[in-house]
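Homework-ish question, so no full write-ups if that breaks the rules, but can someone show me the predicted structure for this set?
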Amino acid sequence: MEKLIALIPALPFAGFVLNGLGFGKLSKGIAGAIGAIASLAAFIVSVLVLFQFKAGDGQPVVVNLWKWMSSNSLSIDFSFHVDQLTLIMLMVVTGVGFLIHIFSMGYMHEDEGFGKFFAFLNLFLFSMLILVLGGNLLMTFIGWEGVGLCSFLLIGFWNKNEAFNAAAKKAFVMNRIGDLGFLIGIFLILYRFGTCQYAELTAALSAVQTLNDPYLVWAGICFFIGAMGKSAQLPLFTWLPDAMAGPTPVSALIHAATMVTSGIYLVIRMNALYATIPDVQEFILWIGMATALIGALIGTSQNDIKKVLAYSTVSQLGFMFVALGVGAYTAALFHVITHAFFKALLFLGAGSVIHGLHEEQDIRNMGGLKKLLPITYITFFIANLAIAGIPPFSGFFSKDEILAHTFASNKVAYVILAIIAGITAFYMFRLLFLVFFNEYRGKLKAEKIHESPASMAIPLIILAILSTIGGFIGLPEVFHFPHLLGDFLGPVLQPAVNFSNSHSLTHAISHSDEWLVMGISVVVSLVGIGLAYSLYISKNLVPASEEPTGFLHKLTSNKFYFDEIYDAVIVKPINLISGIFAILIDILFINLFVEGIGILTKGISTALKSTQTGRATGYAFLMFCSILAFAVFYLIKVF
Amino acid sequence: MLTITLLSLLGLILLFVGFLNNIGLSRTIAVLGLVAGLGSMLFLDQDILTFSGLETQLSFDSYAIKFSSLILFLSVFILFLSGKFIKKDYVQSAEFLAVLIFSLVGALMLTSFTHFITLFVGLEILGISLYILAGTDKKSPGSNEASLKYLLLGAFATGIILFGMALIYGATGSLDFQAIANLGQAKIDSSLFKFGLFFILIGLLFKVSAAPFHFWSPDVYEGSPNVVMLFMSVVVKIASFAAIYRVFGNYLNNYSFFWWDIVYYATLASLVIGNLLALVQKTVKRQLAFSSISQTGYLLFALLVIPNDQTVNGLVFYLFVYGCAVLVAFSVLTDWFGTDPNVKLDQLKGASKSDQMGSFALTIAYLSMAGIPLTGGFFAKLFMFTPAMESGLVQLLIVGILSSVVGATYYLRPIINVWFSSETPVLEKGNSYQWIAFMAGTLLLVAGVFPDTISNLIALI
Amino acid sequence: MNQIPEIFRVVPINHFVILASILFSIGILGVLTRRNAIIIFMSIELMLNSVNLLFVAFSSYKSDPTGQVFVFFIMAIAAAEVAVGLAIIVMIYRRIRTTDVSILNNLKG
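A: Not a homework solution, just the prediction itself:
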């Protein structure tokens, strides 16, 4: 089993080496096959490991490959740690990863950098596997940096123009800010416990008796900052929508299914830590809530198909962090899984649409595609039902579990979250209706629009099936079926359960409350869908295009009496709020925060640059001044 | 002592071999001599190497051997890389090689001194040779300018160090480091001693080009011929750190109360100034020069923590990794642009199209300098950060990590240029040094994946 | 080492220290204010010579020869430095026909 585990990351790495050394020389078929086979093999090995693990005693398996570094006080091994959490992440990463490799073979077929693309994709998979397999914080950090680097490489994949796209750079810098937090967190943990091996760390953390120990609070905050950067939480989320500049399969794999969920993985991995610091959990709850809200609101007014999905990802990640904030780790991981299915499906569907329409991304120029792209339409519809939370699709169960746990611990948070769920249903169905219903609004001739080839359609179908049935691994208590995921994960979350303060994970609320929560979430989703239906199907509304007169014209020519009321009460406020948020975020975080720091450093650098005058005597003088300054300081200190 | 004698003789021989006007032969002799020196350093008994007469001493203890071997090891490759430069018709190849070897004598003395005189002589042998080396590209105005600036400012710093030595001599009556390391309270309290310590520290900080005494280094680095800049940022950096750590980490650590704060602020200043100025540079060499200042900042961490073998090994590991990274960068640059001393960052654009192996090696080198995991640079930084954490220097640690974030942004620029550009650059079609890039790049990866093996090796020496 | 110190010890040691410090400061000022490379160089030599004076004085006061040995090393190396330095200055003079260092500022920023 040890060898099998070590094989999992080695396979995509071998794919990377083969494609990396041979790209430009290998034919596209071979390059794609290498990439896909590497990920498939990793998936198969992961499944084998899963079966062997289930046959075992359920204890974590630690594989020490070699001694990595040692110093006086600490020694760190290059090791893998396989437990229930790792296995679930492995299945998601390799499984969805494989499907997306297949999809890419069709999607990227025309691209000249085909081999390079698959090399990067395999490198990403390798880093992601290191991240989830890592046996200590440092290993996880290495994967963490690796996925950031690959995401940067892949976002910038298409940008060969002179000014290198700011998106890739922004993604990298924001991720680095997060990494900074992570690294400081590691140092704090090392300083406090002298180890960063998960197995030892869990034991050490379980022994902590005091709540909110300042060291641990800081460590928790630092790890969460890392998670914020990687998982696009407020205020470090603006890179994710910009990252949509990359190829669509990349958005599906990295920016929806896997990399962005590594923040959640980290927090679940450190659940023993977070159980002792409820204050930080509270903080996570509200950050997640704010992110979910803002992402959803901005999502309602976007007109780029990928941007809508990106903001929806931001919002869904917020949901997961809310779950982490209330201590519902199982629910968070459950949502990670279902989200990986339906969001990958949505992105691939969007990719299929973009491919079929020859690189058109603006939903105002779509519409009526359900007859032209039937497979894409059906699968996209299923994904929409899943994300909107309509039973029995997968998203319903995971979202419901998050809502139920939130209901149990914080009623205010629950109300806001339920409203966000409604907004989610609204904007997702807005997208669906605008893209697939009514008449086609674009300029392409109908015969030029084509359904995607089999290599793209098959992953869509598989993901659609998973999005449909994926929810049954975690049925709510009231159905009296076992919560498969919860039972499986139990041992990993033991420390959090043991800790007196945290909520019991399985019996959080009574049955009647659970029915209530489920009912409310279905109703809220239906309201959202109904609203989208009435606006975009019944009234055939199209978002304001370049000429607002057309929009007004449509509005007034409509027969419904409620038009104006709809418009005044719902459309305008939503657009207004969403617009305000978009602008606020833009000004506050992009202009002030990111660019401000950029301008500040540039300014200081330029000022410092002027000290390098190039004159030798000038340098001597500056050095003399430095000596004087140090001398004054020295005199005060020493004498 | 044996190695030093060997190298001095080698220098003299090279001067005579110069009469034959056979550059290939001269270089072969130089390389063989260096390998012999390295062998004598690693495998001979330490007593043979140690020289004692009067009070002036060189002691090749394990500390000295670690640094010296590293210097000789990396110098071999620098000698190979110098090929393209010394084949220019107006460069005196024999003198160039001889002076390079002589400067190594100085560098070895800087790793092994136990006495003020040997420290001073080592500094000057290295320094004077470097003034010459910086100016060897006689036809380039930049090289002339670099040489003069280095001379004037270097001699200025030497004056300051000497003044400090004289004051310490006045306070203690001794010039032997061992004697000065254990002084009575009365002598420590004398103001002559305190000022002496201060001036020596300032002078050595100048030599390692720590901010705010760094002003000379970017100009000198930029103006010097490429191979000389490589030599300065690798060998000279190792030698001067060996010297400053030997003085303040080994001998004068008892007096850290006096000097600790100055080093602390110099570290902070180096990290901040080096990284911020590297952000706005346009040429490859100048960017590397400022990055070298920021690397000085990380290396100075070693002086701030409790000194032990671990710290020394971390220092050697860092210098090894950094040296390899710079070596890769320069061998790739030499392959691509020959001896052109002013390669702009923009000239790298699209280079991956004509040389993928080189681009790959360059990427690894820059990633390592940025401290990205699975390259040696990550562990080099980690080995510097861990003792700092154990000593509780939290603010310093945060500044260090923060500046590595800033660093990552400018180290990415060459990588972006190489891989993501539609332009097709004009590159010389020479792969003569690809093997160096390949080998040093492999070492960087090995140091990133098996850092413990490398640090065990270092500890073994 | 018995005869020389007598003569030196007529002057208190502090006077030597102060004189050397003054010479050293003059040297530094020369480096900072002069623009002619040769004069800067002479100022540096002045700095080194003040150090020599200090060493010799301390050496005699302590009846310890090491300081004087050091002085010989300093003198020898200063000579080497001058040889190299003048060569460099000549090289530059040939190119730009001046020894004014403030003209040499092509490398900057």
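Now go work out the reasoning yourself. Hint: Residues 500-506, 546-563 of chain A have pLDDT under 50 and may be disordered.
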